[in-house]
Specification:
The protein has eleven helices and no strands. By secondary structure, it is mainly alpha-helical. Helix 2 (38-50) packs across helix 4 (73-88) and helix 7 (131-155) crosses helix 8 (157-169). The N and C termini lie far apart (57 Å).
Length: 232
């Protein structure tokens, strides 16, 4: 019986490796075509990187990019970031035509990406902004964000880091099948690392500090009509 199990395990591993190789080949065909569509190329590179499909031939994603495609990991990440921007702009009427247009927007959180892109489109005489025009708007918004962050840091490093974490969490897609699992992981981390466990969490919920915080939120959000902007 033991040899049968060993052969079965080897066969299963070979099947997984073959499937990964097939998927990598499919993604590489997209990249080869692609260099026509920066969105397809960026998404293909992201999957190769995140699923580590480069491992059968290269130790690192950086080496894979250099040897297979002749560009750096930095360039690959630019393409990946530009593809992510296109996802953020999926609901806009006008969309970037090139990676060069999308690239400046990667410096902003998703919500600000949409705002900056729409501002650039409205300001462009022909309705299609250049990379330089987009960069100017992005630089202006980054100054505004930097000012907010400086104020948060002056008040509390913890508040600043919480704001950064929230901006990252907003990138979770509404239909992501792992969304609830991610929420559980996040809640567990907060309960054990911020409150020191479930007892500490319950103590805080019933503490005067928590009640004051709830009153502050109610005063900023009367009758529950609107969710505070940081949670949207």
């Amino acid at each position: 019986m033991k040899p049968v199990r060993a052969v079965s395990a080897v066969g299963a591993a070979a099947t997984v490796d073959a499937a990964a190789a097939d998927r990598r080949a499919e993604l590489e065909r997209i990249i080869e075509r692609g260099l026509q569509s920066f969105v397809e190329v960026g998404n293909a590179l992201m999957e190769i990187r995140d699923s580590r499909l480069y491992r059968d031939t290269h130790k690192t994603f950086e080496l894979y990019c250099r040897d297979r495609w002749g560009f750096t990991k930095t360039r690959a990440n630019q393409l990946i970031g530009a593809a992510a921007v296109s996802e953020s702009l999926a609901t806009t009427v006008v969309k970037p035509l090139s990676e060069r247009q999308a690239r400046p927007l990667t410096a902003l959180p998703p919500k600000q990406q949409v705002e900056a892109w729409n501002e650039a489109v409205d300001a462009a005489p022909d309705g299609m902004p250049t990379a330089e025009q987009i960069q100017k708007i992005v630089d202006s918004k980054r100054k505004d964000i930097s000012g907010l962050r400086r104020r948060l840091v002056q008040g509390s490093q913890a508040l600043y880091l919480a704001e950064v974490a929230i901006n990252q969490l907003k990138r979770i897609e509404a239909n992501d099948p792992k969304k609830l699992e991610a929420g559980v992981i996040l809640m567990e981390w907060i309960i054990f690392n911020i409150f020191g466990g479930f007892e500490g969490h319950m103590e805080y919920i019933h503490s005067p500090e928590a009640k004051k915080a709830a009153r502050r939120r109610s005063s900023r959000n009367p009758h529950g009509k609107e969710t505070p902007s940081r949670w949207r």
